[in-house]
Design goal:
This protein is of the alpha+beta class. It folds into two domains: 38 residues; 133 residues, Rieske Iron-sulfur Protein, CATH 2.102.10.10. It contains three helices and nine strands. The strands form three sheets. It has a three-stranded antiparallel β-sheet with strand order 1-9-8, with no helix packed on it. Strand 8 and strand 9 form a beta hairpin. The chain is elongated and about 95 Å long.
């Protein structure tokens, strides 16, 4: 007489539940292990701390006298900060927009009229225009002059003459108070 093992319905359900649990638990452990193993590679794609530090630059404007221009570095580019005189502000505001290659009123380029902040890179071929030092030529309009191809910028950093197609770029910046700005 043959003996057959009888299986009750409860033992079959217990076996399926145990197998499902083991499959889910093994899959979960494998997924967490893969994520932990991949994390160093994923984290290495984040910008380095020195790169993040360049994302913004703080500038103390207190020592900059009226009529003085300074240069700071932001994201590896020179940024020109000009503490404009009343005469320079008046000249920039008086220019008719129809005389400009890239028409922008002075008020659209400054947050406070006495402070002009622009990226000091010529929009023609990426040269650095002259005009930051008192002895530098400032072009026909009193702003900046790029000697490489003869672009002339006015006291608002707008292209007035030469091959440059656009004004000097105004970077994003905010005033912290009357004497400090944060670029970027």
């Amino acid at each position: 007489m043959a003996h057959t093992a009888s299986t009750s319905p409860e033992s079959v359900d217990d076996e399926v539940t145990r197998r499902d649990f083991l499959l889910i638990a093994t899959g979960t452990v494998a997924a967490v292990g893969a994520a932990l193993a991949a994390w160093p590679f994923i984290d290495s794609m984040n910008p380095a701390a020195d790169t993040l530090a360049l994302a913004s630059t703080g500038v103390d404007l207190a020592p900059v006298e009226v009529g003085q221009r300074i240069t700071v570095v932001w994201r590896g580019k020179p940024v020109f900060i000009d503490h404009r005189t009343d005469k320079e502000i008046e000249a920039a505001e008086a220019v008719p927009l129809n005389q400009l290659v890239d028409p922008q009123p002075d008020s659209a380029r400054v947050q406070k009229p006495q402070w002009l902040i622009v990226v000091g890179v010529c929009t023609h071929l990426g040269c650095i225009p002259l005009g930051q030092k008192p002895s530098d030529p400032r072009g026909d309009y009193g702003g900046w002059f790029c000697p490489c191809h003869g672009s002339h910028y006015d006291t608002a950093g707008r292209i007035r003459k030469g091959p440059a197609p656009a004004n000097l770029v105004v970077p994003p910046y905010v005033f912290g108070d009357e004497q400090t700005i944060k670029i970027g």
